[in-house]
User: Fold these one by one.
Assistant:
Number 1:
Amino acid sequence: MKIQNYNNNQLYFTSRLNPVKPFHIDTKLGRLNFSEIKSKDLPKGNLLDEIADFFCTNFASFTDDPYWLAYRSKKNKDYIRNGYVSYLKPKIKYDDGNLTMLTGRDENGKLRAACLSYGFDEVPHANYTTCYIDSLAVDKKFRGFGLGKTMLEKTIDINKNTFTDVFLKGEKKAAGFYEKMGFEKMSPQNPSQRLVVDVIAAHGDGDGYPDYVHFFTKHIQPDKPLWYEVINKLVFRR
């Protein structure tokens, strides 16, 4: 795998506050070009449907969760994809400048990898401290080339001066990957994490927790307090 920044005359889009410069990765299956999409451009044409279908297809290819497995069935496909589009629309509409949609396309323009992140909004005040990796996916054919790792690293790097921590909901099957990336599992048995975990679990009805996913966190500003400890004081007065 070879990663290079590239510069051409094509227009590319970046998030307002945390821009990622375009880059490409050479794999055994060809080159993938990575760049961002502005949140205001996502609803145009069929782009949002394409991205939703990409995420849903790849979620369904790497899970034991019956909800995402149902996406493999034709009768459920439109319902689940449309639900995901409806979920994304308010995130895009109320983007505060921190939303980053990083996409990787092959030389034919086909979407092969994508990562969506923004300030975490499921816990009061967390959007000020915590970057949420909402969705991370790589086409089955292109797995094993470090694309997920690179997108995650790029996303964390651009957010390291804005947020103190990163949070995500990751498939149990991918726990080893996230732990290698420096994430730790959150647990209701941890007194400092319990109240925050309970709020996220209650908010994310149907997200597969705790049967199919873990909650993962990574501290990226060591000189600052942990995000859930801040929330404990601000929200729960603990």
Number 2:
Amino acid sequence: MTGRLTSRGVLTLAVDNAEPDAPLHAEAMRIAEAVLFAAPLPLDEAAVAARLPVGADARRVLNDLQRLYSGRGFNLVRVEGKWAFRTALDLAYVLARETAEPQRLSRAAMEVLAIIAYHQPTTRAEIEEIRGVSTSKGTLDLLLESGWIRMRGRRKSPGRPVTFGTTPEFLRQFGLNAITDLPGLEELQGLGLLEGRLPGDLVPQASDEAALREDEEPIDADLMALGPVPDEAD
């Protein structure tokens, strides 16, 4: 399978006719391409496979499309374990003027977000212990409103503090396929996102699985909806 541009700049797909399933594969790629373009959110392999002709190999189709678009202005990438078209990273600057200025997080909010991402599930007290300073409720409320973190449950410890974790929106926002794709400590410090006081074991080993851990219990029903972060004594 190869891709080429016509004289009018139209991308076409060319499949080796020596392959017995070439026509089926070519048609499956066209369908998958259309489905992914039209989808408002990333699609998993099963969702794409459900739209393909009987006998089509969805994984092969997606991998071939990914190779085909690897050098284009937009690429087929995996986000949160799913597939989606995204603007090529090296061309993001071209579209910057076309998009609204995103809300900028303070350094404190970025540190709190990073700690939650790497240490989840974690509590407000644990965040403060790592940072060495207190964390305002307003910072956590802001991150909750952004949709990047969520209240997971309550720790089975005195005071039953609320535990926090990241959301699928966090992965989408930062272009991550999985939480284990987070950069290492040195990369974060090189970007100026974290202070040197953070511990050296800050590595992408956290789990963002929805299931509660043994040291967690379900959160109160009245706190399930997004809202202000409760005090840990509540």
Number 3:
Amino acid sequence: MPLHPILLAGQWRPAQATGSFRIDNPATGETLPDEFPISAWADCDAALDAATAAAAILRTTPPEKIALFLTRFAERIEARKTELVDLAHAESGLPKAPRLAEVELPRTTGQLRQAAAAVLEGSWALPTIDAKINLRSVLAPIGPVLVFGPNNFPFAFNSAAGGDFVAAIATGNPVIAKSNTSHPGVSRLLAEEAFAALAEAGLPPATVQLIYRTSHADGERLVSDPRTGATGYTGSRSAGLKLKAAADAAGKPIYLELSSVNPVVLLPGALAERGAKLAEEFAGSALMASGQFCTSPSIVILLAGEAAEQFATAVQARLEAAPVAVLLSSSVARALGASVQTLQAAGATLVTGGRAVDAPGCRFANTLLRVDGDTFLAAPEKLQTEAFGNASLLLTVRDAAQLTAVLAHLEGNLTGSIYSDTTGADDALHALVEPLLRAKVGRLLNDKMPTGVAVSPAMNHGGPYPCTGHPGFTAVGIPASLRRFAALHCYDNVRAARLPLSLRDKNPSGKMWRLIGGQWSQGDVAV
């Protein structure tokens, strides 16, 4: 079968390939027929040139055209739903229903429509006006954005349709999508529909480009190239930090979502009150999508005692009774096994699982490990190794003092959860624990498992390093996610006719919120 073409400079054309790859169906182990190219630097160079030209046009493109593209793209995805779901199932092993067809694909089209509404309304750009001295500022497109998508969300985080893509386009930037090698076929189908939607909306054809794979060196060269405006990356910590080092050396913004163990703290009163229910809730959350969510709870922390032992026994029983789900790829299964070995070498005890399953496809036994507070504090970095998949670590501490010491050694995480009782018995301990955990996470939850991310303006899908590269930004939640891919443009004593529409005296939409003279307003500037 010939190599699939790449989408480059407004055309589907053969890659300047240095090699090729195919992927396996993770559920069956069978190699899928499609073959995709590994692009040489010549493709990357041409994509950057084309994106730079597209960016110049997009800077003066009316928001209505960008909103139309986002809306038509959503409609086109929905029209091709069956084909997309079938291929995503084959490439990822994720179930067609409800996961792909009823949850992830609607979330993807919902993001596109939310972004379209934000583009038309315009407040995301934070237009700010000081009319007394004629000084005005607004967020504006930053330039070509590279998007590296992850393996675990073939639609919602896809480099050619997902959250980073949506945010970059809505901000007025062209996107060079680097497909995740776990779902190149899905990325191709999405890019086909994006390309068609560009023509319908009248946007530059190079606004969306797609490359399937590059060398690591060319990836680092891409993020640091002078033509690159910014990069969005979701994936492994090791690869992400290499890209960050290259981008930082060139002074280029890069927004990373990396590893997270999402600690869950179960306070004593909660365990005594509803321990069996918490075991069920935790096991269900930890095994959802075989633990392959970035917000899966990987560490549960509780005070040692009889209630903790009962919880551990109940969790073990549930993990052993639950079916073993398919992992996303053989590389995920290998990495999970390596992480479990790292945790054991650092002092964790294997309770159950810990091995690959002898069955078709990519499967690893549901796994539970245990460690006490003293052992954890002796090797906190190793014992926070992310075991991406269906493996969890149960950490017991002897008292409140050791609990606070453990929390002080936690790395930055996307989420952190605290469960307390309903009668107030845990309130004093909660007051001690909450500030410590709050400082370590982007999203704090009470009496709720962290699995899943709501597409809401109030969402923070981010947090302190090393879960992300910067604690001030979110990858989910419109309009905040858009601001990652913008530059602050200031206009000093610029004539009215030369200002962007959002900074002129008249509010261009009548709905846009602008900070005028220190007051938020949807009105015009008083003359």
Number 4:
Amino acid sequence: MVDNSSVIRLFEHLQSTNPEPETELNYATPFELLVAVMLSAQSTDISVNKATAGLFPIANTPGAILDLGEERLKHYISTLGLYNSKAKHLLATCQMLIEKHGGEVPNRREELEALPGVGRKTANVLLNILFDEPTIAVDTHIFRVGNRTGLAPGKTPLEVEERLMKTVPDRFIQHAHHWLILHGRYICKARKPLCHLCPIEQECQWPEKPTAH
């Protein structure tokens, strides 16, 4: 993305199409969101929501998850990829939440990233949604949109994140995470991007985009 005015126009367009973007993961408490985000690795939000629709009515606190035990927990999340390791990480995280945080989700990056199975991306999601911090969690969608549009080119998710944090104007930073994810999920798709429906087509610098509709 060459100039600041193009960046402003890009986010104004995204804002006009969705003024208050939200996560598509279903949750009612901070702990439920932590669980949902941990389960979302290499899984779609739709599949996570189906799994948690069965899990949360049975167990939606750290203690209740621990009471389930590993085998019963796996039963509820077995439709998700990597469910064996996710079950182990989730149980270990629940144990740590109880022992170190009184069963509550901590609001500091260092404490979040110390939880088993929680990396920078998950921490960024939680800090943004639960604690209103201006963070951007770079998943495959944001990585693609950042590179394809020229908004934040980078070879790694961290590079894209750092460029976005420098490039996105302050007034858009709080919602930038969700705008870019949803744009990548529904418009700027990996294989067949819907350039003819794109609200930021004029600002996009992707050399392969169609030049005419």
